[in-house]
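COMPLEX REQUEST
Ligand: flavin-adenine dinucleotide
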Amino acid sequence: MGADLFYLRPKKLDDALKFLGDHGKETAIVAGGTDVMVNLRSGELKPKYLMDVSRLPELKGIEIKDGGLRIGAGVTISEIYTSPILTRLAPVLQKASYKFASKQIRNVATIGGNVAHCSPCGDMAPPLIIHEAKVVLKNSDGERTIPIQDVPTEPYRSSIDPEEMVVCFILKPNENVFSDFQKIGRRKELAISRASMAVMAEKDVEGKIKFMRLALGSCTPTPQRSTDVENLLIGKVPSETLLWEAGQMVVNKMIETSGIRSSTVYKERAVQGLFMRTLFSLVKHE
Ligand SMILES: Cc1cc2nc3c(=O)[nH]c(=O)nc-3n(C[C@H](O)[C@H](O)[C@H](O)COP(=O)(O)OP(=O)(O)OC[C@H]3O[C@@H](n4cnc5c(N)ncnc54)[C@H](O)[C@@H]3O)c2cc1C
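STATUS: Structure written out below.
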């Protein structure tokens, strides 16, 4: 890190936004620092200012507001994991938090940092996608709201302007339907996802799937919602055969988007297996 790196920690969101308005292009926002510090040390990131937003009260809190579930950008992964509101209304996000990095990292890493970093492997994206999350961005002039899928433009590149900050996420709460998150990594702990999946689904009285949202992480340049697969499964009684067919569709989509790579032989099988693991409990056993 260069000697001419200036550190600041504004006490209020307005002060932070004012500073970004004047110096956004030369500033790196730091929340938990678990991505920023790595990039600073590698020399990939060379800002003039390091603006610490970890103590801004406006970025904190998990609450129900106007029927939506509001999660502040500065909420840590550990806070997500222990939140009673999320146990009730977004259990899939908690499951992803439990499988995230290690306890030390979870205690400082934030949901806002995870989304803004735009890693294709970020574990928060698939659960946020199936909750149809909106991202609230602010600058010194006002705010705008965009869908979560519109944040990454390509791996590690975002549509967030240098003068803007992510303030919070607004999620559609889970109305008591089945949901799950699964990921595959190289190890059980401290493993970046090689493939991840989040699902929310509900069956009708006849056992047909009447509602489903499915999202895939780490398999495409940016995390994706799999509407083709949702459309294939909605209106049908899920059977093992049908799930294999749907899993193959996920695999085909992955190859179509990312092309054939050296990891494809492994990923084809891994993603098919992950899909079965995530959705198999929907299959009705007589
Ligand atoms: C050992 C290790 C293991 C890891 N394991 C996992 C894992 O299992 N799963 C996973 O998904 N990730 C993992 N990560 C990556 C990292 O921990 C996460 O991406 C984390 O959530 C980033 O949050 P942060 O608060 O530390 O972000 P920071 O490092 O502070 O910031 C990350 C990026 O977001 C920007 N940013 C932060 N807050 C805001 C804001 N409010 N508005 C606008 N921009 C903002 C920063 O400028 C920066 O570009 C791991 C990292 C390490 C070092």
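REMARKS: The pocket of flavin-adenine dinucleotide is lined by residues 28-36, 38, 53, 59, 73, 100-101, 105, 109-110, 112-114, 116-117, 122-123, 160, 165-166, 190, 192 (CB under 6 Å). The longest helix spans residues 240-258.
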